[in-house]
Amino acid sequence: MESAVNNCRLIFSSGLYSKNGGEGPIKRESLQQVLEQVRSGQLAVGEALERLRHLPYEDLGFAKVDHHRALRKGFPEVVLGLGKSPSQVAAIAAALAEKSDKVLITRVGPEVFAKVKARLPDAVFYEEARAIAVNRAPRTCPTAGVVIVSGGTADIPVAEEAALTAELMGCQVERLYDVGVAGLHRLLVHVDRLQRATAVVVVAGMEGALPSVVGGLVSAPVIAVPTSVGYGASFQGMAPLLAMLNTCAPGVAVVNIDNGFGGGYLAAVIARLAGEGKGRKRQGRRIQDKASRRSELD
């Protein structure tokens, strides 16, 4: 129990709660009460952590930075660059980098990157994905199973946003680009790779038929990402969006137009949960094997 209390103290002292006051952040007295309840046994460690899932944020005035999102969601808050000034994006990124070993900023260009780079020298600009990332996490073996598919070359920027998101979330990503339905043979030569996937992100514009085709070939979940690529009657992505929502292939989920981040995020969550499930199965088999050996000795 003492070690659990110390761990809680470490969490609190690490700056995960805002020191700027305001309506949202937890107060010191509340933290003290939780710690004392854990120490006395009135509050289980798991319940204390559950309470912490709702806390806290750092108030920058123009933004309230959610430092606890990694605890609740398994990945830190991601910054959408659209609609924010370069200085605002840089300030939010710097605040996130103080508390997290990963930062992801989407939908930005070189001007924003220059501001972020000035404050975070290890930031990297991914031009094709139109994103900035900071990754200070220790290298680990990536989770396999995510495949990103694009219908055409023009869909690659959205596909790369999905790929970068999944990679930053710890996944190994395979890319299959420009394999749309206008030349279906380009896709069919990769069926084996698709069928080994844990989650498939399919990015397509025009008529948006590709996710339905892939959905009919694989048992893994398919995340369909419509893009705004296409001529007039595609209505900036509405046509592929509606086509994907009306798919007859089971196991296809659809995110918003051009939302590569959303597709990559969901694929990474699926792959991570699948990997954890496999790990639990292996652990269960080892326990059963040990129990069997003991019974044989008895």
TL;DR?
The protein is of the alpha/beta class.
The largest beta-sheet arranges its strands as 8-7-9-10-11
Main β sheet profile: 5 strands, parallel
Looking at the chains present, what oligomeric state does this protein adopt?
Answer: single chain
Low-confidence stretches: 3-27
- What percent strand? 15-25%
Radius of gyration: 23 Å
Helix and strand pattern:
HHHEEHEHEHEEEHEHHEHEHEH
Helix- and strand-based class? alpha/beta
Shape: globular
Number of domains: 3
Helical coverage, percent range = 40-55%
CATH architecture term of the largest domain: 3-Layer(aba) Sandwich
Number of strands: 11
Query: In angstroms, what separates the terminal alpha carbons?
Result: 36 Å
Instruction: Give the class-level CATH name of the largest domain.
Output: Alpha Beta
CATH topology of the largest domain: Rossmann fold
Average pLDDT taken over every residue: 85
- How many H/I helices? 12
